[in-house]
Amino acid sequence: MSFAISRVPAPKNEPVRSYAPGSAEIKSLISTYKKMWKEKVEIPMIIDGKEVKTDEKASLHSPQDHKHTLGFYYKGNKKHVDDAIKSCLKARKEWAELPWEQRASIFLKAADLLAGPYRDKINAATMIGQSKNVFQAEIDSACEAIDFLRFNVQFMTELYSEQPVSDAGIWNRAEYRPLEGFTYAITPFNFTAIALNLPTSMALMGNVVVWKPSATQIYSAKVIMDVLMEAGLPAGVINMVFSGGAETSQQILSHPDFAGIHFTGSTEVFQSLWRQIGENIHLYKTYPRIVGETGGKDFVVAHPSAIPSQVATALVRGAFEYQGQKCSAASRAYIPKSLWKEVKKIMGAQLAEIKMGSPEDPSNFVNAVIDKNSFDKCKGYIDRANKSKEAKVIFGGGCDAKKGWFVEPTVIETSNPHYESMEEEIFGPILTLYVYEDKDWKKTLQLVDETSPYALTGAIFAQDRYAINEATKALENAAGNFYINDKPTGAVVGQQPFGGARASGTNDKAGSKMNLLRWVSARSIKENFLSPTDYKYPFLG
Ligand code: NAD
């Protein structure tokens, strides 16, 4: 046996490819897209390293063409969840005891596979299955996913290096044990990188995982699992099941060996999961870790000293990239009256240029929303705004479901800062905007802080440094990710660790050491080199 204190390759953020028109990289990606579009996939669950097929098949469709069938996946039931738990518990000991360098190698290799041979495939899968344009797919399913893998390996070693001080004659050590039992990852549809990060961050720290992806992300989830298996992930470490969210959760959350949940999705679902864990608390062998990143009602507030073209651009990009289906998307804005005419003019000009359609045509900035539910929800808000006395649709508003779930980038102006779309998460390409009197700047900051139960992201635009300072303080608890003169979206792993507070989640900052800390249970070890041999302390004389 040889020994070493190894250093991992220093992580750097994966460079984002430009996909300029006519470039070799765009040609290669679009040709992969076209090839995958024609193929009919068959997606099994992966339990104990094996493909699991069932009698129940569900078809997969693309948001940009809901009549086109991409293939199907096999649905699971109670038995499969049970098998996945058993497979976790079988794999646990060997995986937990594997030296960390061996675990790290698997995830570093997965990062390299995604950066190289699988890059077009994961991007095309995300474009087809989740309707992201080339750039949105690249920053998510390639770059952010790769960053999560490489940075988490670095953070793991930093965490393991954190050791206590020792007095003379003793040696104190900290060991970071994987959680006792198995863990559970539930992932949302909107980021392929999140789907990859939630199960892999737990597995990296030595845990075994049941992973339930969203039904509308299964097409790219398969590519993630293919990559992990090619990278050498042993059987049973991550088990991917396609069973219903509510039933799967009920079964997992009542198991005595359940040790932690890593969730990203809506606030309502997270709260129902937490409630179940509370009710079952007496059943567990250990107190489970609960990590959840959930909804948002993210704001942009401009001060009268802001530059109108910067505000308008941040609103167009921040609200409408990926059709507003980012938890960080700007969905309410507060603009001073003195700037409004100019901001409106620039936004109008930019929105008039934006093309909407399939991601197969890279010139489309806006693509389809994820499914019929989302389409109907967006249309409902637009229809009600069209009828309301307090609101007016000033840009967009068109909805077309003939071929795909297309909703135009829509801006609603309201005279009521508490109008429904100023307060509720819509998760679509709808921005609501309130124009305030310049003299009401302070009152507006209070309004921003108190309008929504969420606190995920927010941005302030100003040139006046006193105003920046005032807003930074006044909005201290209104956002876990706060931006100054920048749009509230596009957090980068290692640069702006991501997560909100209040109703937006437990703020355990995905892609950071803080998050990995939740997936270990520390053991303090004290060794005494000169053990006492007399019970009497000096004060006894
Ligand atoms: P969702 O809550 O509908 O689904 C998330 C996951 O939970 C899916 O896998 C789904 O199948 C599962 N699920 C649904 N009902 C369930 C139940 N009763 N029990 C257990 N699991 C259940 O969310 P979504 O539509 O996939 O994603 C959008 C939501 O996610 C938005 O609210 C958005 O703000 C949030 N989100 C937050 C972050 C963040 O970092 N804060 C990131 C991405 C998305």
Automatic annotation (TrEMBL):
Catalytic activity line of the entry: L-glutamate 5-semialdehyde + NAD(+) + H2O = L-glutamate + NADH + 2 H(+)
Record keyword Amino-acid biosynthesis present: no
Keywords, ordered alphabetically: NAD, Oxidoreductase, Proline metabolism
Biological or metabolic pathway of the protein: Amino-acid degradation; L-proline degradation into L-glutamate; L-glutamate from L-proline: step 2/2
Record EC number: 1.2.1.88
Pfam families, sorted: Aldedh
Record-stated family: Belongs to the aldehyde dehydrogenase family.
Name assigned to this protein: L-glutamate gamma-semialdehyde dehydrogenase
Organism, scientific name: Cloacibacterium rupense
